[in-house]
Design brief:
Helices cover 46% and strands 10% of the residues. The protein has 308 residues and is of the alpha/beta class. The relative contact order is 0.10.
């Protein structure tokens, strides 16, 4: 979507042609760069392990030499799917796996910002986007996953504080129920027929393609008043309303309204399955640290106490 706005985009990561870094996934940075170019921009793939400082330094030395500036830095580095031990409490988790997850999903962001932002400081402008999961401060269901996703929100806030006076904005953004290539494969559908999977999971009905959050990043990048969002946490669904954005299919998914409404249906029905209890607990985690949702959190706690 940055390409569609005419941008030159350096597509970086470890998954290079002939050597994808994620087991079972074929996508590469070369493929991403081709998509950028097809949309009208210029996609440039640069193989980079963002946990290796010297490689990140080389990346931005190249950006400086070739482009002479850096306007937008999107930190969406993850690499933690195979390291996340869902369904296990923290005292049963592998410490080495957790440390590696944090190195990939948090330290990589730090290293990248450390060496990319000086280009923005020099030009007295720029936007840093930290991509996370969820627009709340609540627990995300796994100890190390929660640390990673919460930490990048804090990174945006802390960087914004240090960047005061430099006209560079740092913020965090989350998509909703994202139809990534891996998610589409899981449901056995493609982007063209994704609705066929709604019968498998009714929550999939409000899913969104990666392009919606991409369009939100573009809208932020061209907003002359983006500085007012410095240090904040934003969602694709809220930004799509603010900027009048739609997904590729013309829809305007609103996960922030949809999910709580589904939880209310479960609570009102009061005949929960094991999955229903899990979903209500997930919503409680989202609500319990939100002062505006104190009443809802109390209702959810009482409901869960009845359905232990």
């Amino acid at each position: 979507m940055l390409g569609a706005s005419g941008a030159t985009v350096y597509c970086t990561g470890r998954s290079v042609q002939g050597r994808p870094a994620t087991p079972g996934r074929p996508e590469t940075i070369e493929e991403t760069a081709e998509l950028v170019t097809q949309e009208g921009g210029q996609g440039i793939p640069v193989g980079t392990d963002h946990t290796v400082e010297s490689e990140v330094e080389q990346l931005f030395a190249r950006v400086r030499a070739e482009a002479g500036r850096l306007d937008v830095l999107v930190n969406e580095i993850w690499g933690g799917d195979d390291l996340t031990e869902w369904g296990r409490p923290f005292w049963e988790l592998s410490i080495p796996q957790g440390q590696q997850l944090l190195e990939r999903a948090v330290h990589s962001h730090l290293i990248t910002s450390r060496h990319g932002v000086p280009l923005m400081i020099e030009q007295n402008s720029g936007l840093i986007v930290e991509v996370t999961d969820g627009d709340t401060l609540g627990y995300r269901g796994n100890f190390f996953y929660d640390l990673a996703k919460s930490s990048v929100i804090r990174l945006a806030y802390a960087m914004a504080a240090d960047l005061h006076g430099h006209n560079v904005t740092a913020l965090a953004i989350t998509p909703g129920f994202l139809r990534s290539e891996a998610v589409l494969d899981y449901f056995g559908v493609t982007e063209a027929n994704w609705r066929d999977a709604i019968g498998q999971d009714s929550y999939f009905a409000e899913s969104e393609s990666p392009c919606l959050v991409g369009r939100a990043v573009v809208a932020l990048a061209v907003d002359p008043n983006v500085g007012s969002k410095n240090g904040g946490l934003f969602s694709s669904w809220a930004l799509s309303k603010e900027y009048g954005l739609t997904d590729l299919d013309g829809r305007q998914p609103d996960w922030g309204t949809f999910f709580p409404s589904k939880v209310r249906e479960i609570v009102d029905r009061d005949e929960p399955t094991e999955m229903d209890i899990f979903i209500v607990r997930t919503r409680l985690y989202q609500a319990e640290l939100d002062p505006a949702a104190n009443q809802e959190a109390g209702q959810l706690r009482a409901w869960l106490a009845r359905h232990k």
